[in-house]
Design goal:
This protein is mostly helical.
Length: 275
């Protein structure tokens, strides 16, 4: 893939992320205007007393904010990638941008509460949930692929690699049972096979972090060692924003994900700046 081709794909990704952001904002306006969250069941109470405190307790409004923040972060980071690497052929950044784009798809979760006001959306709930699962798996696999290209493995078959990632993500997304009833409670649409999501996310993303770290250690590249650290922080924030819903975790996750992503890009950009 040429630099011009990658830049065109980046622009297309920015456009789609902006569209998903607009969809999320419209959903938030409808949810707030009609007071849908007020009549919805919140998450089950935690047994630990610390998670029962006001700022650490799960609330639907905090969950709505964290979901809406993801496409905002995606749009900002995709713009940053475009301007920082506009004339740089960095294959790992190309796949990292796919991870960033996948964040914006999480805004589709905001369609689930609207089922209470628009029952016809129930028809599409399973498809929406599988789309979200697809991009979650795709995000993890994109990071792993980015870490492999950090070893300076060059290939012209980028399209074939993306197709393979898409095929694997599609198969995994359709192997998980969808519980669309729980979607009406607190933005959680799958109680079954939850451990599969956690274990897959942890293992694949840990491999990506170690791959960047090994490049930094064995090739004596300090920028990649820094990138491995920031990638680890990004993934922690990513998990927090996907699976929590308190005000404290939402604020910490948004700040950490945005800051970690920018510092990760800066570390990789500094390496290519000296090449």
């Amino acid at each position: 893939m040429t630099i011009a081709g990658r830049n065109r794909i980046l622009i297309l990704g920015i456009c789609f992320s902006t569209l998903l952001l607009a969809v999320g904002i419209v959903c938030c306006v409808i949810i707030i205007k009609q007071g849908i969250l007020a009549g919805m069941i919140s998450a089950p109470k935690r047994t630990l007393w610390i998670f029962q405190q006001p700022l650490l307790r799960y609330t639907n409004y905090a969950a709505m904010i964290r979901i809406t923040s993801l496409p905002i972060i995606a749009v900002i980071m995709l713009f940053s990638i475009f301007f920082l690497f506009e004339k740089t052929h960095a294959l790992e950044i190309s796949f990292f941008s796919l991870f960033i784009f996948s964040l914006s798809v999480e805004s589709l979760q905001l369609l689930f509460p609207l089922q209470k006001a628009y029952p016809l959306l129930i028809i599409f709930s399973a498809s929406i949930a599988r789309t979200i699962f697809f991009f979650r798996f795709f995000a993890c696999l994109s990071l792993l692929t980015a870490s492999l290209f950090a070893h300076k493995t060059f290939t012209r078959e980028i399209g074939a690699a993306i197709f393979l990632l898409s095929f694997i993500s599609f198969a995994l997304a359709h192997s998980i049972p969808i519980n669309t009833v729980r979607a009406l409670s607190f933005f959680s649409f799958s109680e079954s096979y939850r451990s599969l999501l956690y274990s897959f996310h942890t293992i694949i993303c840990a491999l990506a972090v170690f791959s960047f770290l090994f490049v930094g250690i064995f090739r004596s590249i300090s920028e990649y060692r820094q990138a491995a650290l920031w990638l680890f922080i990004i993934l922690i924030a990513h998990i927090v924003l996907l699976y929590t819903g308190s005000w404290v975790f939402t604020a910490a996750g948004i700040t950490t994900l945005a800051g970690g992503s920018f510092l990760f890009l800066r570390a990789i950009h500094q390496f290519y700046l000296w090449q």
